[in-house]
Amino acid sequence: MTMRTSLIALAAGGLLSVGQALASEDCGRVQIADMNWDSATLLANVDHFILTHAYGCDAELVAGDTIPTGTSMIERGQPDIAPELWTNSFPDALDRGVEEGRLRIAGLSLSDGGEEGFWVPTYMVEENPELATIEGVIANADLFTHPEDPSLSAVYGCPAGWTCQITAANNYRALDLESEGFALVDPGSGAALAGSIARAVERQEPWFGYYWSPTSVLGRYDMTMVDLGTGVDEEHYLNCTSQEDCADPRPTMWPSSPVQTVTTNDFAERAPAAYAYLESRSFTNDEMNEMLAWMDENQADGEFAMEYFLLSYEDMWRSWLDDEAADRVAAALGL
User: Fold this and answer.
1) Apex CA 178: angle with CA 177 and CA 184, to 5°?
2) Half-sphere exposure at residue 64, Cβ-oriented, CA atoms within 13 angstroms
3) 218 exposed, middle or buried (CB, 10 Å; 0-12, 13-18, 19+)?
4) CB 103: neighbour CB atoms within 10 A?
5) Is 179 exposed, middle or buried (0-12, 13-18, 19+ CB in 10 A)?
6) CA 319 to CA 302: how far, in whole Å?
7) Do 260 and 87 meet the contact criterion of CB atoms below 8 Å apart?
8) In angstroms, what CA-CA distances link 222 with 55, 133, 202, 213, 312?
9) Phi and psi torsions of 29, nearest 5°
10) Residue 86 and residue 166: Cα distance in Å, rounded?
11) Which residue, among 95, 93, 88, has the nearest Cα to 238 in the 3D structure?
12) Helix (H) or strand (E) holding 33
């Protein structure tokens, strides 16, 4: 029996009667935001399984994205849980939601935080160390040929609609890269952006652009973050670089991003044991990179990756739960 069918069969066979086991907690119906990148969809599916089988929640996954999900949680109280929010993308709104008693920050999804920046392949830096700096990249602009116009150099930005599209574009303007011959390339999708890195590295070709960690791409390919020579101006980043209407951006490195699990206050109050699980559930970047590489290698979606994780990393997820809740999850898995 395959891993996927074994879990489906266990669930269908009713090996866990959560209604009887969890009469003391009224978790109720719970919406979990399933974001459109691998680490977030893995977390959403793990939370869905554990909340269902450990705490008797009537859990469902709903499509989400950073700003729309955060805004909806503040204004409408739905979804109940955002398993992975890069919360520096909208700090003012998030702070207001917490202050007004609408939201709770359960804890860190990624205990190390997230990294963002402009990157080049490490093999380029090994050949020419100055490429680890923005001055070196600019001085060697002719290496980074635009894929559609050889007269231009290319810096890859973030897909339209993503928050990082704003920050990458503002740093592109702040560094005045256009005057240095660089055009900002919209890759069209996260997959296309990852593919551009993979294609360049596998061919040992130049590449320069935005990316973030943890990801399977930066876990698989050795990349060096470009030093902008500015350090981190966190106040300017929050007030201008991350704002779409930033009129006069200044160059700044991206601050380390707190990557947090956020819930509605209503969920935290009605399901304290389930909320306590979310307070404990966290991955280091190395742990997440390992999972993301597995997902990429196996073309696994969030559900399949969840099954692999729960069956392969029992010690890890048991550490997030009390003994009774962990045993209920183990029973549902047939462990």
Assistant:
1) 85
2) 29
3) buried
4) 26
5) exposed
6) 21
7) yes
8) 41, 16, 11, 12, 26
9) -80, 130
10) 14
11) 88
12) strand 29-35
Pairwise CA distance, residues 34 & 83, whole Å: 8
Q: Are 46 and 308 in contact (CB under 8 A)?
A: no
What does the alpha-carbon distance between residue 113 and residue 86 come to, in Å, rounded to a whole number? 9
DSSP string, 216-275: HHHHHS-EEEPB-SS---HHHIIIIIT-TT-SS----PPPPEEEEEEEEHHHHHH-HHHH
Nearest CA to 156 among 125, 192, 114? 192
Strand partners, 104: 263
The Cα 1–Cα 333 span in angstroms is 13
Instruction: List, in order of start, the domains of the chain with CATH numbers.
Output: 3-112+258-333 (3.40.190.10), 114-241 (3.40.190.100)
CB of 187 closer than 8 Å to CB of 200: no
Per-residue pLDDT of the chain (335 residues), as tens digits, is 345 445 544 444 444 444 444 434 579 999 999 998 899 999 999 999 999 999 999 999 999 999 999 999 999 999 999 999 988 778 889 999 999 999 999 999 999 898 899 999 999 999 999 999 999 999 999 999 999 999 999 999 999 888 899 999 999 999 999 999 999 999 999 989 999 999 999 999 999 999 988 888 887 898 999 999 999 999 999 899 999 999 999 999 999 888 999 999 999 999 999 999 999 999 998 799 889 989 989 999 999 999 999 999 999 999 999 999 999 999 999 98
Tokens 């999900």 locate to 69
